[in-house]
Amino acid sequence: MQLLRGANPAVTLFDGDEPVALASVWRVDWSLVGTGTAIVLWHAGEVTVFGDRPDLGFWLASSFVRHFPEAEGLQWSQVRFDEDPVAVELDLSEGLLATSRRLSVRIWEPMGERGFQTDAFRLDGEDHALSLRLAPCRRAELVLDGQRIAGAPRVTEDAARPQSSAFLADQEEWRR
What we know:
By secondary structure, this protein is mainly beta. 6% of the residues lie in helices and 61% in strands.
């Protein structure tokens, strides 16, 4: 059963070994809960969903982001919703700019693009099928209420398979 189709770029910023922020940007072209855009932000021990559809935002945060490997070990508080519509501009060859009134997420300098597919992505203890186009990136920046959140993505510049905690993801499809 198809659950969602769209895009989900994301970044985890680190200060040394410690994660300081996680932003998961969503452009949902189709889902069981409808369409729309949202940003799920973990920062300073708080989780906030920015968007204009609370039902979609809470579903993305609790059914997906909370169970992603990037969220493992983070203090996950009760999710708050901020009625703050999100605009998403995404190009796998250039980068991402996602903006709302209070938050902007910028991810850029892609290090190539590749496909990813698995039938065993665990979400809340259950296997899901996931396919997407992925582009790890060198740079990322989060600005909340006009203040840049300190930190940088973790980047491994391997010519064969570069990796980063900042990445673009498009043509994403989730199935159960």
